[in-house]
Write a structure and sequence with these properties.
The complex is a heterodimer of chains A (359) and B (288). Chain A has 359 residues and is of the alpha+beta class. Chain A has nine helices and 21 strands. Helix content of chain A is 27%, strand content 36%. Chain B is mainly alpha-helical. The chains are: A alpha+beta (359), B mainly alpha (288). At the A-B interface, strand 6, helix 2 and helix 4 of A face helix 8 and helix 9 of B.
């Protein structure tokens, strides 16, 4: 049983607050993704858990034991770096065996453990290879194996697939998820790729400017974003700035009921939740471009005031540039002052959205 | 199959390139290769009483059978090895600090480490005498607090060692810091992550990656130390003396240019050995 508890952790670099009063509990065997744009503090947070940065304040506990004062070499964590950070003067076997040798483990036991972990990551028989002879994906597997062979209580992954191509990234993240679930190892995963977070995580922590925006299951984060930032950061979201008056949100000829107090609001509509119908004189927008992706189409629209939004359609051939359309959103959310104030989602669309998330 | 014609532009470019290379090559041949060959030829053809110059190893036999010459060669080797050892002992920790430390203090330390580069050897030698010589600053300070005088390293074998160490710190630090550039922060962090404490980290991760730069330091420093003259001449003992002053004295005071050339050839053979060590280290680095 290994759990991680981060309480009120902050990190100040000179005058820059990289992480601001962050708290998170990661349960045993859980995989939590720290997701956010560059500079959101996710890597700093991971490095604080690994011991490579010292928090300015707060507490980090692993299985209830405070580890803030421990250097990296004494923490029960294993970190996989973005650049693999393999030791090129050692072969694959020695890269994995190094940590075990430092623990003065008998040679036979080291060989047994290293070979078992190499098999686990699909690199059985690669022990004698020089790491420079391996492909990027194989190098990343060696880096993962190097951490796993020491059986850390907490596995820390710092954008491990960032340097790999898209195809390899997709394959490796599935493999890593399989291994993580098989070993039931508590994992903290840093990424700025929403697809990685949505497909791998048990929970996602969306971070921005060192603060937590939302902590939830991937499907909840996708379907019920709590802030406009999360709404815009996860997936594609149309964010329309407008005004609510008498329970109706209006923006340049487009209006929809939003039963909240009068005032400015940001309306959020997913492209897949926006139905379009061809309209004549009463058109609320005009088709700017239609892109056919084969499985679906993406219609780029211009509202009357020039605001650009997107709608996902199943039959893109029904639309053409310059055509007038009216909008019929099936699920909307409204935000004011960075807070969710209203949400409407129809059951049919919820199921469709779940399918999208699962895909 | 038709041969591709060479255009006039290409051939003129080739000629320009050759001319550009020719100047330094000819200068090198004139200023370096010719004196070496000429000196070697003279050392190997000692002048006889009748003015003839048969090929003979007589000069080398004289050098290697003369206890004073051997003592001078011995003190030169001793000075070089001790200086090299001290340089590595001082500069490796310094280079590690400069590579991994951040902030203003590291900048100050780097500036201090580079400072000797801008001090001429003769100034350094006299500064050394004023500070560590008899009745120098150290003696005066000790005397002021009622302590006995130090045993001054001036005119002992340790005099040149101290001066040469100080003089060679900048180049050694520069080469080592450059070599440490091959050690990424993440490689170091990965080692710490798997449990490596500082000594294991240095021995297993950092040293193997900076080995080439250590080899370059060894060869460069040894070449420089063998060729050193001012510091051993001013700070060193009169007897035995390092090869630099020994050659100068044999040539000028004893008016024996043939023997001086023999001493230079012996010195050059040692330098060639370290030169080959350097070439091998660089070649191995390129291969890897």
């Amino acid at each position: 049983m290994s759990n991680l508890s981060i309480s009120n952790v902050s990190k100040l670099f000179s005058t820059t607050l990289a992480v601001d009063d962050f708290s998170l509990d990661v349960a045993d065997g859980e995989l939590v993704c720290l997701l956010g744009p560059s500079g959101s503090g996710k890597s700093t947070l991971l490095r604080m858990v690994g011991g490579f940065e010292i928090p300015s304040q707060g507490s980090i506990r692993i299985d209830g034991e405070e580890v803030v004062h421990l250097p990296p070499e004494e923490r029960p964590t294993g970190m996989v770096f973005q650049s693999h950070a393999l030791w090129t003067h050692m072969n694959v076997f020695n890269n994995l065996a190094f940590g075990l040798k430092l623990r003065r483990m008998p040679k036979a036991q080291i060989r047994e453990k290293v070979e078992a972990v190499l098999e686990l990551v699909g690199l059985g028989g690669y022990g004698t290879r020089a790491v420079t002879q391996l492909s990027g994906g194989q190098q990343q597997r060696v880096a993962l194996a190097r951490s796993l062979v020491l059986e850390p209580k907490i596995l820390l992954l710092d954008e491990p697939f960032a340097s790999l191509d898209q195809h390899l990234r997709e394959r490796l993240r599935e493999e890593v998820r399989d291994i993580q679930q098989r070993l039931k190892i508590t994992t903290l995963f840093v990424t700025h790729g929403q697809d990685e977070a949505l497909s791998m995580a048990d929970r996602i922590v969306v971070m921005r400017d060192g603060k937590t925006e939302q902590i939830d299951r991937p499907d909840i984060v996708y379907r019920e974003p709590q802030t406009p930032f999360v709404a815009g950061f996860i997936g594609t979201m149309n964010l329309i700035e407008g005004v609510v008056q008498n329970g109706v949100f209006s923006k340049a000829g487009y209006s929809t009921p939003v039963p909240v107090a009068d005032g400015p609001a940001t309306l959020a509509i997913r492209p897949e939740a926006l139905e379009l119908t061809v309209a004549g004189e009463n058109a609320q927008g005009q088709v700017h471009r239609v892109t056919d992706y084969g499985t679906h189409g993406l219609v780029d629209l211009v509202l009357l005031d020039g605001t650009r939004i997107k709608a996902m359609v199943s039959h893109p051939d029904l639309f053409a540039a310059g055509q007038g359309v009216s909008l019929a959103p099936k699920a909307i959310a409204a935000y004011r002052d960075n807070v969710l104030i209203h949400r409407v989602a129809l059951g049919k669309d919820t199921a469709a959205l779940r399918q999208l998330v699962d895909a | 199959m038709t041969a591709r014609p060479v255009s006039g532009v290409q051939s003129s470019r080739g000629l320009t390139g050759l001319l550009l290379v020719a100047v330094p090559v000819l200068l090198f041949a004139w200023m370096t290769i010719w004196p070496i060959l000429s000196g070697l030829a003279r050392a190997l053809t000692p002048e006889q009483a009748d003015g003839s110059r048969p090929v003979s190893f007589a000069n080398f036999v004289t050098f290697f059978s003369d206890p004073y010459s051997l003592a001078n060669l011995g003190i030169t080797l001793w000075t070089c090895l001790v200086t090299l050892g001290l340089l590595l002992a001082i500069c490796i920790p310094l280079a590690l600090y400069l590579r991994f430390a951040q902030g203003r203090l590291a900048t100050y330390v780097q500036t201090m480490a580079m400072f000797p580069m801008f001090v001429p050897s003769i100034i350094l030698a006299f500064a050394f005498i004023r500070v560590l010589g008899p009745n120098g600053t150290v003696d005066l300070l000790l005397n002021a607090v009622g302590l006995p005088k130090i045993r001054s390293p001036y005119l002992t074998p340790w005099g040149p060692v101290i001066g040469l160490v100080w003089d060679n710190i900048p180049l050694t630090v520069l080469i080592l810091v450059s070599g440490l550039g091959a050690v990424s922060n993440q490689a170091v962090e990965a080692a710490r992550d798997v449990g490596a404490k500082p000594l294991a980290l240095f021995w297993h991760i950092i040293l193997p990656r900076m080995w080439t730069s250590v080899a370059v330091v060894v060869s460069f420093t040894m070449l420089g130390l063998f060729a050193s003259f001012t510091l051993p001449y001013v700070l060193g003992p009169a007897s035995p003396e390092m090869m630099g002053p020994f050659m100068q004295r044999t040539f000028r005071d004893l008016r024996n240019p043939e023997m001086a050339l023999t001493q230079a050839t012996v010195t050059m053979l040692f330098c060639i050995a370290f030169g080959l060590f350097y070439v091998r280290a660089v070649a191995r680095n390129r291969e890897s």
